[in-house]
Amino acid sequence: MAESETAVSRTTVETRLDDLVAGNRFTIAVVFPLFGAVLLVASAESLLPAPLNFNPLLVLFGTLVMRLPLVAGVAPVVGRRAAAGIGLLTLYAYAVEYVGTTTGLPYGYFAYGVDLGPMLLDKVPLGLPVFFLPLVVNAYLLCLLLLGSRSALVRVPVVIGTVLLMDLVLDPGAVALGFWEYELGRVALDAWPYTATGDFYGVPWSNYAGWVLSATVAVVTLDRAFDADALRARLRGCEFMLDDLVSFVILWGGINAYFGQWVPVALAALLGVGLWRTDRFDVPPPPWLERRRAE
């Protein structure tokens, strides 16, 4: 296939994906996370039939749907360099998770309590990049909007802090659901200089030290792989590009609220404020709801 034909095919796919997301923003960014939060809480409380409790196919399907705005938004600016960066981060995600589940480094000892689908080497969920990479990319995009054209010396540490903020929302909610569990007080490798003695809603502080490391690797890689100016231009022209972060706030804010974990709820609200300041917490209602309001 000629290069021009390949470009046309890619443009056609990207346009159709844009139209699909733009035409279903409310369903993807609001309905799916609300429904997902209800299903996950119901699973944790064993209120659903056994086959539906934390059904890995449902979890993965719902996650992939909520990722669509991010995928559609970023796709047009993914060249060879960016694709290579994403590939490296995928390998890194698998590697650091395997080391973590095997040695307790760098996050602290933990074990999965819920079936998240096929496992790689019986240690790491095969779908891990779908859960990990969007956290970093969403944080990066939000900070690009909030910081404007500030240099990488400012941008990179702020994005790292935002990734850490997102994990302060995600991990307590996931632990409350039973997705995974940490062994508090156990020393990683018996030689690591910290112990997981304190905790934040069942999550050891060592986990967040590990996330500083992982976020630094991921953010620096993204910053080198992507053209920040091209991403900013795409952000200005693509109103749904951060809808996945809207879903994150609704899903994990709601789950933490159910379990009475109010600090993570407040941190989720802080992310919501950031989205509001960038005029991105404005998912329009579907046409049927607008017609009902008009009546």
Number of strands: 6
Q: Major sheet: order of its strands?
A: 1-4
Counting DSSP H or I runs of 4 or more residues, the number of helices is: 11
Based on secondary structure, the structural category is mainly alpha
Uncertain residue ranges: 187-197
Distance between the termini: 52 Å
Describe this structure in words.
This is Bisanhydrobacterioruberin hydratase. The chain crosses the membrane at residues 26-44, 56-79, 91-112, 124-147, 159-180, 208-226, 246-276. With 295 residues, the protein is mainly α. It has one domain (3-294). The protein is 68% helix and 5% strand. The protein is built from eleven helices and six strands. The protein has helices at residues 3-22, 25-44, 56-74, 80-103, 128-147, 152-177, 205-225, 228-237, 243-258, 262-277, 287-294; strands spanning 110-112, 119-120, 124-125, 180-182, 199-200, 203-204. The strands form three sheets. It has a two-stranded antiparallel ribbon with strand order 1-4. Strands 2-3 form a two-stranded antiparallel sheet. Strands 5-6 form a two-stranded antiparallel sheet. The termini are far apart.
